[in-house]
Amino acid sequence: MQASMPIATAAATPKEFLEVSGLRKSFNRKTVLFDVSFRIARGEIIGFVGPNGAGKSTTMKIMSGLLRPDAGTVQLDGVDLRKEPCLFLSQIGALIESPAFYPSLSAFDHVAYFARLRGCYSAATISATLERVGLAPLSKKKVGEFSTGMKQRLGIALAVLHSPQFLLLDEPMNGLDPVGMVSMRELVRALSRENGVAVLVSSHLLYEVEQVCDRVLFIKDGRLVREKRLSGAPPGLTTGVRLRTGDNARAAELLRETGFVHEIRETADGLECVVAAADLARIPALLVGEDIELYEFTPTRESLEAVYISEYGADTKRIIE
Amino acid sequence: MNDAQQRARNYFWRFVVAEVRKIYDFRFPQIASVAIFLATVLFVYQIFYIEGVAERYSVPNAYYAVPLLFYVTWGKTLLIFLLLVAFSVYCVTVESQYGMIRVLCAQPLERWQYVAGKYAAILCHVVWLTVIYVLSLLIWGTAQAGLHGITADQLLSLFNMFGRVLIYSLGVSTISISVALLRKTMISALVTTCGVFFALALLTTYRSMEFGKYYFIRYYLMGMEYLPMPFRFEFPRYPFSTFCWVTLVTCLIFVLPALLYMHRRDITE
């Protein structure tokens, strides 16, 4: 199946909490990001998926101020990263690539350092932060003696220490055991649900992404190629319907205007959309009523893995061959 | 000052305080302080008991003993110089070496604030180490030779020298920090910094002593003309103000490119 750009969702979106617009980045004259744009609402958890080298970390590094984009803007609640970097960065927490620490300092020292920097230093705050990620018993142990999973937890502790409004997590599950992954999932959900924190999380663990994310963005060769909504619909959602009609363009326009179709995507030979189970029967009735011939109408349940393979599977096959 | 500027200033000073405390937590300053104080004893033992300098030259009090100790610890060996270089380079490159720079540069700090904060925090510790060093010279020099017959003018000369030692230490560290900011690993930063100082020293060998007063690197022979030395060097006289502005200008030559580089670079490590 050819990769294709997503068609905009049917419902109009209000001004979003985080807006990334037209990000472009090159290294040594090689462009690695091509006009990446997306939005995240307050409290939304967005998955960021793609193969190695697709541009996930580059996008996240731009959003955390580590890289300067060649073009494009990043705005958080109206605050532009380039114009007001201090205000922007004060509201975000980031865990980019593998967690980094000073080996000779303890977990307590690390949290204390960032607590001083953020102006929230107190023994109670530091203890509570370490407790939250399960590192309280190891607070005085040197980080050089930590396992990968412990370092990952400490990295997340530093990212959430100051109660940010937006969290950037680059492969946060790396090195975590199954219990740790469950804890991480619950922490991210709690931050989103209770504190309205918007989260952008990149991961190769598609099952984990499916469990925790509201939407997933697919990136390939520096371009966003697809967006898939995983939640926000009524219970019993049929995740996909495959349609083949006599006039796909007009059918897409009609479905977009209805308001009950959550997502529409044009494929090589038809349309794919997402609707609630209760609205399923309304689609053929609508199309036939508008004299649009309906050749195929197949409800599907598309897993994230299936989407991933459909987007990137050909590349993987080429590498193996 | 508007809210944004006030907020930025608050973050900057909090960063400086956090950095000072972090360097303290590394234990490097504490170990270096004890090492400097104890190593000075070894130099006292060497020059007064092994080489027997007091038997060949008159050392009636600390005014005569302290410059000898200074020359041996700084001029004859490069231990203090290398300690300052290594300490400064370590405090800068530890971020890149362990990847912490991508955590720190994602904090609410402008790049120039990050750089200025590093300078401020490291130089705070350099001041401390230098104070320990000059106190060691004074204490052990006094312990060896006493203060008998020392005049107020002689004490002022000693403090003049100590002031120059402090300025020079700050200059050495500032240059080391600036060069280290351009490198990403400790070893490469150390090698490059030593190379820079070596190149600076080489330049001075082809200039006359009169012109040499404008070369910062030569100032390790600082203040010698004020103090009695058993062996004579011919130095052009230069006032404290010249010493200060030459140090400042030399540092700016290195600081400005470092600031510009850090402001523009992408953090990829």
- The CATH superfamily name of the largest domain in chain A is P-loop containing nucleotide triphosphate hydrolases
**Assembly level:** heterodimer
- Which strand order do you get reading across the main beta sheet of chain A? 6-7-8-3-9-10
Q: Supply the helix-strand structural class of chain A.
A: alpha/beta
**What is the averaged pLDDT score of chain A?**
86
The CATH architecture designation of the largest domain in chain A is: 3-Layer(aba) Sandwich
CATH topology of the largest domain in chain A: Rossmann fold
Percent of residues in beta strands of chain A: 25-35%
Task: Describe this protein's structure.
The complex is a heterodimer of chains A (321) and B (269). With 321 residues, chain A is an alpha/beta fold. Chain A folds into two domains: 210 residues, P-loop containing nucleotide triphosphate hydrolases (Rossmann fold, 3-Layer(aba) Sandwich); 88 residues, YebC, transcriptional regulation domain (Alpha-Beta Plaits, 2-Layer Sandwich), CATH 3.30.70. Chain A contains ten helices and 14 strands. Chain B is 73% helix and 0% strand. Chain B starts with a helix and ends in a 5-residue tail after the last helix. The mean pLDDT of chain B is 86. Classes of the chains: A alpha/beta (321), B mainly alpha (269). At the A-B interface, helix 2 and helix 3 of A face helix 1 and helix 6 of B.
